[in-house]
Amino acid sequence: MTALVSWCFRRAGVVIVLWLVALGGLGTAALHTGAAFRDTVALPAADSTAAAGLLRTAGAGGAAERVVVRSPDGPVDGTDRFFRGPGGEAPGPGRARLDAFAARLAALPHVVSVDPPPGEVSADRRTAVLTVRFDAPAADLGPGTAEAFAAAVRDAGGLTAGASGELAAMTAAAPGLGNAGIGLLAAAVVLLVAFGSLTCVLLPVLTAAVSVGCALAAVTLLSHVMTVPKISTEIAALLGLGVGVDYALFVLTRYRQGRRDGAGPAAALAVAAATSGRSVVFAGVTVCVSLAGMVTVGLPFLNGIAAAAAVSVLLTAFAALTLLPALLRLLARRMSLRPDGHGGRWARLARAVTARPGPYTLAALLVVAVLALPMTGLRLGVPDAALDPPGSVTRTAAELLEEGFGPGADAPLLVVGTGGESVGALREALLASADVGPPAALPGGVWLLTVLPRTAPADPATGELLASTRVMARVLGSPDAHVGGVVAARADFSAAIADRLPLFFAAVVGISVLLLAWVFRSVLIPLTAAAMNLLTAAATTGAVVFAFGGPIEPYLPVFLFAGLFGLSMDYEVFLIARIQEAWRRHGDTRAAVVDGVAATGRTITAAALIMALVFVSFAFVDARVVREAGVGLTVAVLLDAVVVRCVLVPAVMTRLGAANWWFPGRTAVVAVEPAGSPR
Description:
The chain is an alpha+beta fold.
């Protein structure tokens, strides 16, 4: 580690050029190839997948999008007596616009048919629904066709129009990273206030910006070889910018400390590499290992998110060990090395906590409990289109459908089967709890019933209707009957993730505990760290539920748990490493805790504030799941840095005393100053 960092310091020009070439090369390649993001979720064993398969065998496997239009000035379903032509009554303005709009939709690429206008009409005759059928499934048509379709819907020629379906959903929340700059600007202000040096602002921000730029280009290229959802770019930027500034800051802080203690630039950097650099490597690996736990869920959709986030974290950690030393060579002489006057405050806090660990532990646990309380109302599920960004075609369609046809109009259940002798009896049974259209006979002996709930898509009653419909379809319809549609697919997606959550939690916690045990040669330190991280996870989930209500996207707890478990390990590593250094010198756990908190308290809280500012900037983007992740990770890092690492960890370690350092086969404490220690 020291050799790599020292070489980068000596060959600063070469390293900077290599990073700029990498940034330019990856960026050019990403622009040349374009993105191939896919938001499709493959659930081979799901009931909704079986329903889609039956529809494909009957020749109805292409995307079927519902286009909803509303006329501002008259009915859409026929002639208007106020408009007469040479042959008598002429179409009213609403119907004329609808006919022209339908013709434009029919001319789009891959469209095979459009229901003849006016289609399904609302009771007030102002809203109509047309079904636009494509020649392939939405996943095969891709984002290009989706954007062209959405553009045609937005340009409805005087009508208010929206679209509902898998193809339209691809355009609901395209990635947007404009707020990332606001987060970096806020982080720069914190760095300037905390460290009083413009160089200390530029170095972490430049390091994070260059590495995340490379990461986003790499994620775009990665989308051509594996399933990567488009939301991955925002998640990769969110994590990369947060940890990138932090990793650079931890190395820079240790370097400044060495310079203040009289070491030359090269010697101070060598010490920083041997201490903080090692911690950066372990922290980055821990975050990636935690993210890799998402693979245990077994969904390519989540594998893509995990891979994108891991690429971003690894590149930012590598930049902190290569690009930062090179930039230091150029800017080190301009760095302010004013004395650190804040260590005494953190030492006083640590002495207070270690003097009365019991009350401080209870106070910290009370804060966590209050934040975690809303988690009791957690309900997993994919939110309906009514929560999509304002102005999106999907949200417009949801609003028009509810206004014109009722709350369940955007949540059709498609009951599909063969052998339709009892379809009539099934329809009669379903009419007691939903609106059901007449049976439709499809080629190959396949029948189809369209069931419209009387409640909104995200209403728990709609989920109960789905469950009862599946039971009745098999009992009254036929043994091979299946229920599909958007609501059914979302419910199957949520169930698939929920079933695998125990394995995911066990994998992330278990691997993280083993890594910490290997690094610190301790049994209790990793176990208590895991318990505290679980508390932080509960508080984070509670905060998200309180802020956004329900339902919460089923994969959000997976990402939040993996992300915050890895990020919290960052602070655990930096804090415990300094405590362990002090403990090795004198063997006094309480004094070591005080020394460790005094040495790292300001840096950890400043780093947490910086990371939180980056995360919270993502709480204002269009994509709801990214807003949830931004709020959740903001709460997580602030709670973890301020309450857990600066209060709960010191209090618990003081209570455990010498037991903290027990490990099978450990020898007695060696009271030797660590090589390169500035103390």
